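Hi R.,

As promised on Friday, here is the backbone we talked about, encoded as structure tokens. Could you run it through your design pipeline when you get a chance and send me back a sequence?
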């Protein structure tokens, strides 16, 4: 995913983030939706639905590794090839970075759905909230009441802010558009096949593990931003960090546990507990010490995660601009030394 230095990468990241704020995800022809259709076709070839019994063990894992390698590697290589081809045209290269970042981000759509959930739960429209929940997570909405729905929204908006916003911005800053595309591909595959159901337990293993690896730094960055910005939601940074340190490791996900625990501490609510999915029920560890979240807490979570997204964009843009400035100064010093000698 490495390529020649990009003097305007920070501008591309800023424009991509601004495009997501203005347009969010398009209803049609979204590149990620096209990637999803390609992934479904390849999954059907490698892991057909009609197989009985469902392939498991090493056979399924090898097939899952092939799916992940082809799709994530293909996304990174193709996006990176365009980036390198535009190396001599910095303005076009910045536009390509902006386009890739915009296509990989999902933060504005995420918060829009979460805000709608707050309105539905606040008005007592449980049926409407259940119908909307699949846009946020894969839980079984028919088994959830008002408090469970509110908890599902808060947990999902925290985890997905890390995945759909912070990670994209971080990888775009570190590895350019190829990095952003690779993470978005891995995260999309994890959402599609990285489940604990019988069908995907082994086949989705590679996608889930790669998503964990690529999401690890972003989750910690999101946790730190959540703590630093806790005051936006009326919370305290110290409490957010305390709950993170105490509770995050108990969560089955090494990344979701960090952002959910930091959010629980920042909001002063209790997350975790019985979590029903179509394939069965999971019992998640308790995160935080407060009461179960309600509709008002969903609104606070939306406010906090919006601040986290903006903070991540500012850090990514400033960090990349500073890195480019440092590289430029280093090259100038090297040139002066060469000319002096």
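Update: got your reply. Pasting your designed sequence below so it's all in one thread:
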């Amino acid at each position: 995913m490495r390529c020649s230095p990009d003097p305007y990468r920070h501008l591309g990241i800023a424009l991509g983030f601004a495009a997501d704020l203005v347009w969010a995800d398009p209803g049609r022809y979204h590149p990620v939706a096209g990637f999803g259709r390609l992934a479904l076709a390849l999954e059907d070839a490698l892991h057909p639905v009609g197989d009985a019994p469902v392939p498991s063990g090493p056979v399924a894992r090898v097939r899952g590794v092939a799916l992940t390698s082809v799709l994530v590697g293909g996304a990174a290589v193709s996006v990176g090839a365009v980036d390198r081809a535009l190396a001599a045209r910095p303005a076009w290269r910045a536009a390509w970075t902006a386009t890739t970042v915009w296509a990989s981000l999902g933060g504005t759509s995420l918060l829009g759905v979460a805000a709608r959930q707050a309105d539905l739960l606040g008005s007592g429209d449980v049926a409407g909230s259940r119908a909307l929940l699949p846009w946020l997570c894969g839980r079984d909405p028919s088994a959830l009441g008002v408090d469970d729905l509110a908890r599902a929204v808060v947990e999902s908006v925290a985890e997905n802010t890390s995945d759909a916003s912070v990670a994209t911005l971080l990888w775009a800053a570190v590895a350019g558009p190829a990095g952003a595309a690779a993470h978005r591909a891995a995260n999309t595959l994890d959402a599609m096949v990285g489940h604990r159901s019988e069908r995907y337990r082994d086949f989705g293993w590679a996608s889930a593990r790669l998503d964990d690896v690529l999401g690890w730094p972003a989750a910690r960055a999101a946790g730190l931003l959540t703590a630093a910005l806790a005051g936006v939601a009326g919370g305290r940074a110290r409490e957010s960090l305390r709950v993170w340190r105490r509770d995050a490791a108990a969560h089955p996900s090494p990344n979701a546990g960090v952002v959910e625990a930091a959010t629980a501490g920042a909001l002063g609510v209790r997350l975790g507990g019985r979590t029903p999915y179509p394939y069965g029920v999971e019992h998640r560890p308790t995160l935080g010490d407060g009461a179960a979240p309600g509709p008002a807490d969903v609104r606070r979570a939306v406010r906090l995660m919006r601040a986290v997204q903006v903070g991540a964009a500012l850090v990514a843009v400033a960090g990349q601009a500073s890195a480019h400035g440092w590289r430029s100064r280093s090259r100038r010093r090297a040139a002066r030394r060469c000319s002096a000698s």
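One thing I noticed while checking it: Residues 146-193 form the longest helix (48 residues).

Thanks again,
M.
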